[in-house]
Amino acid sequence: MAENFDAENAENLPEIEKQWAVKATHHAETYWKLISSIPGSKLRLTPCDDEIYAAFLVTFPNFNIKNIDEDNFKSEKSKAKWREFHRGLENKVEDHNFGTLLRKRADGEYGPDNGLFATRLQFYAIEIARNKQGLNDVHCKK
């Protein structure tokens, strides 16, 4: 059965979409609480943050982590680069392909105008870069 599964033509079941939304929202809320209480520059999100960060810089040297251009992020060219990025790290990150909410602007909170859908590995790559570059430190309430 699984070998004949066609993801492109699979039906979107409302119950599964609700479960994804609950899990993705919980992940976003947890991450926001984390960067609101600890400077991002002091955080490690995975055991392989340095490897993810190095691969991200090589694959996406000009990626604007402060303000993500959603149209560019979701373009076919960008999707192909992200697929290649995933191939190199998919065995290092649990749930690497799970749907996750990502803030478009590093200086803002999660919200309807500041969120987009990404994979867990995309989230890690961008948020690790934001943390290492100190962009999330502004959210820490001392």
Automatic annotation (TrEMBL):
Family annotation (Pfam families): PBDC1
GO molecular function, one term: protein folding chaperone
A GO-annotated cellular component: cytoplasm
InterPro entries (alphabetical): PBDC1-like_dom_sf, PBDC1_metazoa/fungi, Polysacc_synth_dom
Domain Polysaccharide biosynthesis: 16-139
Superkingdom of origin: Eukaryota
GO biological process: 'de novo' cotranslational protein folding
Name recorded for this polypeptide: DUF757-domain-containing protein
Organism: Anaeromyces robustus
